[in-house]
Amino acid sequence: MADPAQNLSPKEREQVEENSPAPAKVVHASISKQGEEELERPTSSLFWSAVAAGIAIMASVSVSGALHRYLPDAPWREAVVAFGYPVGFLIVVLGRMQLFTEQTVVAILPFARETTWHNAGRVARLWGIVFAGNLVGTAAVTALAAQGHVQSPAMLDGMVAVASRLQERDAFDTMMQAIPAGFIMASVAWIRSANNETGFSVVLVLTLAISLCGFAHVIAGAAEAFLLMWAGRADLGWVFGSFLLPALAGNIIGGTGLFAVLAHAQVSQEI
C-alpha cells in the first residue's frame, strides 16, 4: 500500500507526525509506565494522597448541594445540580491525588502485561491502601460538614437532599449502575494519557455524564453516604451493605473487568 505522505515535503511530513494522535500501543505503554510508578510508591505517600482525595471529593457534594439550595423547584433543577458533581473530580484528578477507579485502574495494565502472583499482590496492596485512604478522608470531612457547623443549616439541607437520592435504589441497582461509572472513570486515565492538554474538559464532560445518567461512583457516593449517616438519615450497615460494597463491586467490574481488559486486549498482539 502506498504511503499517503509520499508526495509531501519533509516539513509537511513533520506536520503530519505532529498532528497524528498517539497510537493505542503508545498510550498503553504510557499508562503501563504510570502504573508501575504508582505500584512502587511508598505506603504513606499513597495513603495520604488518598485521604486528600477523599476530602477533596466532598466539593462535588458541596457544590451540588449549593445548586440544589439556590435553584427553584423546577423540572430542570436536577440537570443543573449535576454540574456540581465534576468539581471534586477536577480537584482530585488534575491534582494527581489517589482516587479509587481513576488512579488505581492504571495498575492493572502492568499486571495484564505480566500476570504473576507478585504483580497481583502489588495491585491488591495499591487498591487496599487507596480505598482505605479515600474512605478515611470522606468519613472525616462529612463528619465535619454534618456536625462542625462549617456551613449554614440551609446549605447542609441542600447537601443532604442531593445525597438522599442514594437511598432510592437497592444494593443490586447500585452495583449495576456502578459498572458504567467504573468504565467511564477508567477511560479518563486512558484519554488523558492520549492527550493530556484536554484534561480539564475530559474530566468535566465524563464526570458530568456520570451524574446526569445517575451512575454510582464508590468514592463520590461514599461522601454522600457518610453525610447521610452523620446527619442521622442512615446507619453504618446501610452505608457499607447497601452502597459501598455494591458500588465497589460495580466500579471494579466496569473499570477493571471491562475497560482495562479491553484496553489491553486491543494492543496485546502489538506489544
What features would you describe in this structure?
- By secondary structure, the chain is mainly α.
- It has a single domain (24-265), classed as Glycerol uptake facilitator protein (Up-down Bundle), CATH 1.20.1080.
- The chain contains 13 helices and no strands.
- The chain crosses the membrane at residues 46-67, 79-99, 126-150, 171-191, 203-231, 243-265.
Write a concise keyword list for the protein shown above.
single chain; Glycerol uptake facilitator protein; transmembrane helix; Aquaporin-like; transmembrane
Main beta sheet: strand number and arrangement? Answer: none
Strand content: under 5%
Domain count: the total is: 1
Indicate the CATH class: Mainly Alpha
How many strands?
Answer: 0
CATH homologous superfamily caption: Glycerol uptake facilitator protein
Please give the count of helices: 13
Mean pLDDT: 85
Order of helices and strands: HHHHHHHHHHHHH
CATH topology: Glycerol uptake facilitator protein
Separation of the first and last Cα atoms? 23 Å
Shape: globular
Secondary-structure class: mainly alpha
Low-confidence stretches: none
- Overall helicity: over 70%
Tell me the radius of gyration.
Answer: 20 Å
**CATH architect. name:** Up-down Bundle
